UniProtKB/TrEMBL annotation:
UniProt record similarity statement: Belongs to the PER33/POM33 family.
Location in the cell: Membrane
Organism: Lophium mytilinum
Record-linked InterPro entries: PER33/POM33_regulator, TMEM33/Pom33
Membrane topology: Multi-pass membrane protein
Protein's name according to its UniProt entry: Endoplasmic reticulum protein
Pfam families named among the record's database cross-references: TMEM33_Pom33
Any single biological process term in GO: membrane organization
Record flagged with keyword Hydrolase: no
Residue intervals passing through the bilayer: 24-46, 58-77, 98-126
Keyword list, A-Z: Membrane, Transmembrane, Transmembrane helix
């Protein structure tokens, strides 16, 4: 992430310098996504999700998501070009930012599924908080008289944001993983009801989710927890043997499918980190 402008400059000049960066456009995109999510959420709560404003808010949320992840992908691509590195299609497909960019575009042009917004919104909360702490607050904070130029001392607000991110990040990433699992079943339900385009959508989202499982320890942990709970429930003596057998068969099929589609076979065993990659 680019450093904030020097505090020795006038406030107006610092703000102009900050606003001229591509990183600031990334920040604005995440803020727009959050406001759009809140506006759409209000319409949903009031059972007015088919209104014009609800539709605009929903689409704007995914336009903002596509813009933010597009900026990150572009910056990463430009950095690789400067270093003379050219990744292939498989290498690009393993980039989490490329995956989320692709899904943002898919949701943008698909029928409304409110649950699809929430993972992007959770990510945006932490992206906005991190940028505010690292760039916006230092830019607004004037250097004390006689102080040497450099990074200003963190304010109380900055420290509060830092504590918030540190305390809630892991739990929120687990929440995102659970939301993405729930979203898969939501899309599967649409496919079973033969809603228009749902089978194509479940195929695309399954590929995306398979990549998330390979790269995110949070997704892996959430699936393990949910599987353990299901095992405990079905272990009850009152559960019909046919149901337990069906559950074991389902798990076996899923494991075989996961092994057959392990993307690490094609990229030399490298995977991403446990959380969303931050823009640099």
């Amino acid at each position: 992430m680019a450093p904030p402008p020097p505090t020795a400059q006038p406030l107006g000049q610092r703000l102009v310098s900050l606003a001229q960066t591509l990183q600031f456009a990334w920040f604005v995109g995440h803020v727009t996504l959050l406001f759009s999510t809140l506006r759409y959420g209000l319409s949903y709560i009031l059972f007015n999700f088919s209104s014009r404003w609800a539709k605009v808010s929903y689409r704007l949320a995914f336009i903002s998501a596509a813009a933010t992840y597009g900026i990150v992908v572009y910056k990463a691509y430009r950095a690789r070009m400067r270093q003379g590195k050219q990744g292939g299609l498989v290498s690009m497909a393993t980039d989490e930012n490329v995956q989320y960019l692709g899904m943002a575009l898919v949701w943008l042009f698909s029928r409304q599924i409110p649950l699809a917004i929430l993972p992007f919104a959770v990510y945006s909360i932490f992206h906005v908080a991190t940028y505010t702490r690292a760039n916006l607050l230092p830019t607004l904070q004037a250097a004390p008289a006689g102080a040497s130029p450099g990074k200003p001392k963190p304010s109380g607000i900055s420290e509060t944001i830092g504590k918030f991110v540190k305390e809630y990040y892991d739990g929120s990433m687990t929440l995102v993983a659970i939301l993405e699992i729930a979203l898969w079943f939501r899309v599967l339900g649409s496919a079973l009801l033969f809603q228009k385009g749902s089978w194509i959508l479940i195929g695309i989202y399954t590929v995306f989710f398979r990549a998330r499982y390979a790269q995110s320890t949070f997704v892996q942990g959430a699936i393990s927890q949910l599987t353990a709970r299901a095992d405990a429930q079905l272990a009850n003596q009152s559960t019909p043997p046919a149901v337990r057998q069906g559950w074991e068969t389902f798990k076996s099929i899923v494991r075989q499918a996961a092994d057959a589609t392990d993307i690490r076979r094609y990229v030399g065993g490298q995977t991403g980190g446990p959380g969303p990659k931050k823009a640099q």
